[in-house]
Amino acid sequence: MTAPIRVLIVEDDTVDRLACRRELTKSHLAEFVVLEATTGREGLQLAALHKPDCILLDYHLPDMNGIDFLSEMAGADQISTPIMLLTGAESAAVVAAAIKRGARDYLGKDIDGQYLKLLPTAIQRMLREQKLAEGKRQAEAKFRSLVEQIEAITYIVPLDGEGITSYISPQISKLGYSPEQWLADPELHARQIHPDDREMAMRSIENSRKGGHSLRQEYRLMMRNGETLWVRDEAKAVSDETGRYVFLQGILLDITQSKLAEHALRKSQEELRQLAGHLERIKEEERKRIAQEIHDELGGLLAGIKAYVSVYIEREARSGRPPEPLLVDAVALADTGFQAVRRVITDLRPSVLDQLGVWAALEWYASQIEKRSKLQCTCIIEDDAAAIEPDSETSTMLFRVVQEALTNVVRHAEATTVSIHVALDDAMLVISVQDNGNGIDSARQLTRESWGITGMGERARYFGGEVTITGKIGEGTCVKLHLPLEKLNSE
């Protein structure tokens, strides 16, 4: 059963007061319990004593006017009681002043008394609005209580009008501003965004506001003291009961420390990459030096041994004596040694790479793979790619990546064919090594046994390139190296 509505009528005119009572008591819309006061002071006392659900207030009273009454109610902290002002011929300015002082609604008295018929409905409407307003206040209080306990800056931006921020949490003080200062200047947010980030950030904010889209972006905000704060701006459009988006509710989360850590990590990775590149250069130089020493020293020794033994055998033959079998075997061993020396030198640093360039070196290496294994190895270099002449270090990187890829094919793929293809794709040099072997999955690429794969990627990244590996079990593997043409320096 619905509780009766307790109405306090503050009206000095007996006729009007009784008319209001009569209209309310006979209403079928609700049950009304009526209290009456003939002066403002009496009305204030009854309001404090009985806490009515609403008050019908005449503007002209013997001891005060309606504005004074509203001021007294506010001073007594009773302004939450909804008050309807009953006006006669008062101006709109009077009504506006009353609303500003806390009146919830107003109803104009007419000569015919038609306003009386509207009283029950007007009171119910006013109470509904009061209930909604109270619910909103409680929700806002709860919202503030929650958001003001978190570190993030919380804000609300209505989606109608100009999209001016209507709420900002006290955490805005982190930027050096009070909520009042922030809300008083609609352009302050845009001005405090770092100049390098402003256009991008404001465009995203505007698109989110106009389209009711969720927002997630990172940018820099300038603090009042000139320092820079990195924030993650996340917002979601909130809709009303009809599904219409009414405001954006978001947070500005301080991510400065994570950005600094991210920057430090990137710097560390770059330093490691530079170190790896430096070590690669040292390793290549050492390989080149060792290959040269083997060629000059060991190769020279083997050549001398073979020459001495061959001269002796020839002298013996001229004398009509058969060559000593051990000496013949020694010459054969010297030849085998020569082949081993050439193979070691080639593995350390193919001379063709320095003499004829990387493309000839790849074709030569493909032929060597065919000779050393059962693989059918083809190498196709498109004309546009062949016209490019990378510098020495880049050529070495390209060759080593392909060499590592082919080594993996020979050792692990169980393939019968493998192809090397070099071409240009837009502004990229693309080298692919495709086999028809047993394939590789992503899990295998991440094992500790896959340092060769990791090395390929690091070599490429040092030169601004990228290595990708795709494969399917039973269908082969494709290793691709992408290198921007702008990173290729001609000698």
Q: Would you give an account of this structure?
A:
Residues 6-124 form the Response regulatory domain. Residues 398-487 form the Histidine kinase domain. With 491 residues, the protein is α/β, with parallel strands linked by helices. It has four domains: 5-142, Rossmann fold (3-Layer(aba) Sandwich), CATH 3.40.50; 148-254, 2-Layer Sandwich (Beta-Lactamase), CATH 3.30.450.20; 260-349; 355-491, Heat Shock Protein 90 (2-Layer Sandwich), CATH 3.30.565.10. The chain is built from 16 helices and 15 strands. The chain has helices at 14-25, 40-50, 66-75, 92-101, 115-147, 179-184, 188-192, 195-211, 256-318, 325-348, 351-356, 358-372, 383-386, 392-413, 442-445, 451-462; strands at 5-10, 32-37, 54-58, 83-87, 105-108, 153-158, 167-168, 215-222, 228-239, 245-254, 376-381, 417-425, 428-435, 466-472, 476-484. Strands 2-1-3-4-5 form a five-stranded parallel β-sheet, with helices on both faces. Strands 7-6-10-9-8 form a five-stranded antiparallel β-sheet, sandwiched between helices. The chain is rod-shaped and about 160 Å long.
